[in-house]
Structure formats: C-alpha cells, structure tokens
Amino acid sequence: MGKKKQAVIIDGRQVAAELKESIKKEVAEMIDKGDNGPHLAAVLVGDDPASETYVASKEKAAHAVGMMSSTYRYPADVSEKELLEVVDYLNNDDEIDGYIVQLPLPGHIDENKIIHHINPAKDVDGFTPENVGKMVLGQPAFLSATPYGIMELLKYYKIPIAGKHVVVLGRSNIVGRPLSILLSQKKEGANATVTLCHSATENLGEITRTADILIAAIGQPQFVKADMVKEGAAVIDVGIHRIKDATKKSGYHLTGDVDFDEVVKKVSFITPVPGGVGPMTIAMLLKNTLLAHKKEIYS
C-alpha cells in the first residue's frame, strides 16, 4: 500500500494577495485614464472590537489596491432614524460606488430595516433582498463576500465540485444558506449535491462522513472532529474563535470550527485558521466594489 498523501493546506492569504494584485492593476489603469477609481465606504456604529478590526482591515486593503475608502462612525446610541438618513445619503452620493453597514448593530436598531434600505446597486456585502433573490435565481448579483471567497478558493485549488456531495454545517444568511445555493447551481464551478445541516440535525456525524467537501460554519470552536470526516475529503473551515491562552503574548490563540490538528491527518485539502477563508472575505469585498464602480451588475 502506498504512503498516504499529505493534505494540501489551502493558503487563503496567497489567493487573496493574487486577487488584490489584479484588482490593483485594473484600478491603476482606470486612474491613468482620468477615472477617480472605485470608492468603498463603511458605516460603523458603536465600538465593537471585532467590527473595528474588520473595518480598519477593509480600509487598509482598499488603500493598498488604490481605492478610496471612507468610514462613517456613529455612537452606539445613534437612533434608527439617524442611521436610515445616513443610508439615504450614501445611496444618493454618486462618488461612493459601494458601502457596507457593519453588523451587528445595537439592539434598538432593526438590522433588517437598515439592510432593506440599502441601494442594491451599492450593496457590496450582498445582503439586500434583491441581491439575495438574484443570487438564488442564478442571475448576476453582488454575492456575500465570505461565500464568494470560498467559491474562489475551491476554484483556485481545482477541487472537483460537479456531482460531488457537499455538506454545509450552519445555515446563517451570511454564509451557510447562500453557499449551499451557490454550490448547487447548474453552472461551471458548482453543480454539487448539497446537504445543509445545523445544530439540530440528527445523526450529524453519519451525514458529514459522506461529504466529499465539508464546509464548517457552525460557530463552535473545534466542533468538527476527525471521526466526522471522510478520508480524503476537502474541508473548509469558516469559523474563527479567540481562545484564552496564557502562553501567547496576546493572551489568546485563534481556532476554527474544525479540530485542525486531528482532521488534517485524514483529508486531501483543508483551510487553516487563521489564513484560510478570512483573507478572502475582504478581497471579495474589494472585487464587488470594483464591479459596482464598473456597473457590471447593475448597469
């Protein structure tokens, strides 16, 4: 019997860097022709540390590819009415191509009301009902950045999808549901048979063991153990959790929804945490902003 091949560690940083380099070239060409280039904005309410970090990373990444970037900051007690006025302003500002309203919002604000108010042509997060509906129908739409990034990783690493069984763990509107739809669509780079599971799924391990591709977005650290994974499967870990760790200078270490050290011994491909899916999210947000500027989705 031949020696088992080592798993390929999917390098999201490398794929994101290549994508950002191609975006940077395209933006530079636009600016050379006298175009202002794309402009991405973010609305940040309150001082949630994770939201602050994400928005700062987005700003830095936008500047690195030559895009303009603006952040509109508001205190946690901003009223829903005031926030809706901000969204109206951004919808009508011709200089801003796309924007995100960073979630979660404080409890007194109806997130759905805010999202419904966003102009779909500027919805680079892909959260509005119009973009979600178009995605479901297989029509051109802004795709939610994390599912979009995962599709790009599978494509980059030439992981076969057509006819394969994909199990998605987690049914959030941001990752699990849109990803299950994208993977099952009848088109190149998709065409899979998809099972969508969640925390209430019975016989979960039996189902995950049948997956050629297992996508973990269930929001529980190291939930996926080696005995839940089929030999030779591809595993995509969407989770990211801070675990207290006195041995680290930062006081914590990062881990995903997958028990990486054990699962890596069984699989053919796997994403690490950090450095797997995470870097792709901001890269795809920049890609959506470029598409918004070029008016390729909404002309």
Can you give me a brief rundown of this structure?
This protein is α/β, with parallel strands linked by helices and 299 residues long. Helix content is 37%, strand content 16%. Helix 6 crosses helix 10 (278-294).
Overview of the structural elements:
With 299 residues, the protein is of the alpha/beta class. It folds into two domains: 34-123, Leucine Dehydrogenase, chain A, domain 1 (Rossmann fold); 143-278, Rossmann fold, CATH 3.40.50. It contains ten helices and eleven strands. Strands 1-11-8-7-5-6 form a six-stranded parallel sheet. A three-stranded parallel sheet has the order 3-2-4, sandwiched between helices. A two-stranded antiparallel ribbon has the order 9-10. Helix 7 (176-184) links the parallel strand 5 (165-169) and strand 6 (193-197). The longest helix is centred in the N-terminal third of the chain and has 21 residues, at 12-32. The termini are far apart.
